[in-house]
Amino acid sequence: MQFLNTINFTVPLLANATATEPVDSSMVVAAVLLSLVVIYFASKLGGELSNKIGLPPVLGELVGGVLVGTSVLHLLVFPEGGTDSSNSLIMTFLQITAGLTPEATPQVFAAQSEVISVLAELGVIILLFEIGLESNLKDLMEVGIQAFVVAVVGVVVPFAAGTAGLMIIFGISAVPAIFAGAALTATSIGITSKVLSEIGRLNSKEGQIILGAAVIDDVLGIIVLAVVASLAKDGAVDVSNVIYLIVSATAFLIGAVILGNIFNKTFVAIADLLKTRGGVVIPAFIFAFIMAYIADVINLEAILGAFAAGLVLEETDKRKELQNQVLPIADMLVPVFFVAVGAKTDLGVLNPAIPTNREGLIMAIFLITVAIIGKVITGLAVFGQPGINRLAIGVGMIPRGEVGLVFAGVGAASGALSKPLGAAIIMMVILTTFLAPPLLRFVFPEPKTAATVDGATDPSLIGSNSK
Amino acid sequence: MQFLNTINFTVPLLANATATEPVDSSMVVAAVLLSLVVIYFASKLGGELSNKIGLPPVLGELVGGVLVGTSVLHLLVFPEGGTDSSNSLIMTFLQITAGLTPEATPQVFAAQSEVISVLAELGVIILLFEIGLESNLKDLMEVGIQAFVVAVVGVVVPFAAGTAGLMIIFGISAVPAIFAGAALTATSIGITSKVLSEIGRLNSKEGQIILGAAVIDDVLGIIVLAVVASLAKDGAVDVSNVIYLIVSATAFLIGAVILGNIFNKTFVAIADLLKTRGGVVIPAFIFAFIMAYIADVINLEAILGAFAAGLVLEETDKRKELQNQVLPIADMLVPVFFVAVGAKTDLGVLNPAIPTNREGLIMAIFLITVAIIGKVITGLAVFGQPGINRLAIGVGMIPRGEVGLVFAGVGAASGALSKPLGAAIIMMVILTTFLAPPLLRFVFPEPKTAATVDGATDPSLIGSNSK
């Protein structure tokens, strides 16, 4: 980017072309339509098969994503993985059927990837908004202390065990060991909450503790990542940045709750005033997107803002109406996220023919062991909840998902990680992500309502919305 | 673009950066979230006020778009208008609140514009899919001949009168006069169908004739545009291209109807088989997006494919269920389209302080007169329908909307149009677009159900969906 900017100065015409040259928009729309067809096909095929064998549909969506993505079919690929447009089968298909020229292909590919990535991001934002709408702030607060303890144990134990183990057993130096340890701390709210929702356990006590702990873990993870990244860059911790993150995260969460109590009534009053279409869902999205924006710009994650917005609106009389309307929107956008996560997963790291993978394999086995045990024991830290399913809580914290991939990505970019260790971390992320949904399904013995968002559907609507 | 490609060859590193350098994705997401907040705010403010004074909400959404767009507030601007990122208030806001660097701004601006443009395009695709779901193929076929006559009259009369008038009265040479005449032939399906839906007249006989004629007009317009563009480029008509367009358009429409009869049953069987969430809406979108893709790549418009898909699925038992689920999705995406159309409208052409505008003004008055009269008289061409509201049909064909803007854009790019004539065409497009919704509202005297899509809402859902 820096390089590009220097050039911009000396070649203004090119600079203009780079930044604002409009790509053939009809071709970009065609590429996005094709991508969505591929995504929906993969999500339905995977989701239905997964459901059929009694596993959460989201596992199938992830696997469907792997199938169409960079590991297998190369239909849906993204430039982040270093793939260029010539590896995208969708681009090849457009060249054959729509007369896309090879010269225009890189730009159309870049635009399509950008659009699909943002749609995926909107998908997980809407998912967390929906999860917030289905959760209850009071219930969450009631288990708040337990959730906090679970989150802290789930950060400290895997981090300490992972870092120490890598240094002592494998003789790895401090900075890369700390990075790998940090990657072990993540928990994917998206995958965990989606599975809980699919097996009808989101509103169980265990579900609320997992959800609360995953949210707190996400905040802790952002702080850990900031610490580790500054350590890898300067060899020292940027204390002011860490304090800023802690203060802003706390202020945001407390602010959301206080603001929520005020905004509650305003929202209902506004929604009652509006007479045209979208009079409930549009004000709700304005609120959710503003909260997501704020969370994003104070270096938290956008999904935390959307979750807080959902929690606030759950308190209002409009909850049921809003849930019914968000449901199909989530059905449309959420699969884009899970399929994209799968599509970006490069199973190449599991290929034993590649030397760095073989070297990484034994480290991967160690990391995976720590990753699973380090989270499962968090259930033991829950106190004052007799008869609670401690194993389920621990298992719920296992999936690293997209959060783990962020850690791996930052680590690889910083140059702190050796290739084998980088491969080992990605193996750990893949395995914990894909193992967690079936494990969660089995530690919660009797599913209540599979494949339906618990509490989201009005009884009169089950026929139309639950499928 | 051509220039860019030459450079790519000699500076491979830069070429790579241009095509695949990943932009700061968290910043792009923040920019898109802000844009959506602005869009939703503009659409609700405009739509509600418009509704309050008894006009179709979509007029308010367009005006709201103008307010936040390139003409007034510069919140939502697009590179197409030659605007660069320094004119985007959203970018300025991101620089202040989110620490967006000036160097990264052009790329984030380009990505944000690309994403919002595609969301707008998805919005109008979903709108036409929804309109198709609410229309009945048999009803449309019944008035097919009348719709065809209305479309042909509405193309021939404005084209002939406009071209001849400009040549005879204003002494303009043939090619620019033909271009201006061609711009007069357009009809915006999006605006017309949305207004009809909002005033509850989509399924009236008049509504069906207007809708059918607007669809046929769209196909005719694409052919006219191809003829005129090749005329402006080479001075000769590319006959083979015109034949290709006519054959492919006809084949597509007939194919859609035949295929529809077969796919009908397959769709219901598939939807019944699916047990996970989105089991109706996702297969429907797969079908709609494939149809839109096909229409797009055979040089028709994507919206025609989506409309055909909606018409096909309207025939199935799943219609009601599908309509209920598409409704909130449309509520989320359709406003992006109308606000974007408004935001891209540059009211600068109406400014009399600019000399070319003054010169264009008298031509604009002529063009607007031809534009309105040339479409209003199409109602007279309707035969065999005693007691039909001929005025309403003619008025329904008036709005040029986004289709007119495409003509103006191609004309300006070809260099065939003088500045005053270009300004005059844009004035004509703006006035017909913004006049049509109130006019349509008044020529249909008693509104049945304002602000509700006719027939789309299950009675049990009116409370939740109609607002």
UniProtKB/TrEMBL annotation, chains A, B:
<dbReference type="InterPro" id="IPR038770">
    <property type="entry name" value="Na+/solute_symporter_sf"/>
</dbReference>
<keyword id="KW-0050">Antiport</keyword>
<feature type="transmembrane region" description="Helical">
    <location>
        <begin position="58"/>
        <end position="78"/>
    </location>
</feature>
<feature type="transmembrane region" description="Helical">
    <location>
        <begin position="243"/>
        <end position="263"/>
    </location>
</feature>
<keyword id="KW-0739">Sodium transport</keyword>
<comment type="similarity">
    <text>Belongs to the monovalent cation:proton antiporter 2 (CPA2) transporter (TC 2.A.37) family.</text>
</comment>
<dbReference type="InterPro" id="IPR006153">
    <property type="entry name" value="Cation/H_exchanger_TM"/>
</dbReference>
<keyword id="KW-1133">Transmembrane helix</keyword>
<feature type="transmembrane region" description="Helical">
    <location>
        <begin position="27"/>
        <end position="46"/>
    </location>
</feature>
<feature type="transmembrane region" description="Helical">
    <location>
        <begin position="178"/>
        <end position="197"/>
    </location>
</feature>
<feature type="transmembrane region" description="Helical">
    <location>
        <begin position="421"/>
        <end position="440"/>
    </location>
</feature>
<protein>
    <submittedName>
        <fullName>Cation:proton antiporter</fullName>
    </submittedName>
</protein>
<keyword id="KW-0813">Transport</keyword>
<feature type="transmembrane region" description="Helical">
    <location>
        <begin position="361"/>
        <end position="383"/>
    </location>
</feature>
<feature type="transmembrane region" description="Helical">
    <location>
        <begin position="145"/>
        <end position="172"/>
    </location>
</feature>
<keyword id="KW-0812">Transmembrane</keyword>
<keyword id="KW-0915">Sodium</keyword>
<keyword id="KW-0472">Membrane</keyword>
<feature type="domain" description="Cation/H+ exchanger transmembrane">
    <location>
        <begin position="41"/>
        <end position="442"/>
    </location>
</feature>
<feature type="transmembrane region" description="Helical">
    <location>
        <begin position="284"/>
        <end position="312"/>
    </location>
</feature>
<keyword id="KW-0406">Ion transport</keyword>
<feature type="transmembrane region" description="Helical">
    <location>
        <begin position="209"/>
        <end position="231"/>
    </location>
</feature>
<dbReference type="Pfam" id="PF00999">
    <property type="entry name" value="Na_H_Exchanger"/>
</dbReference>
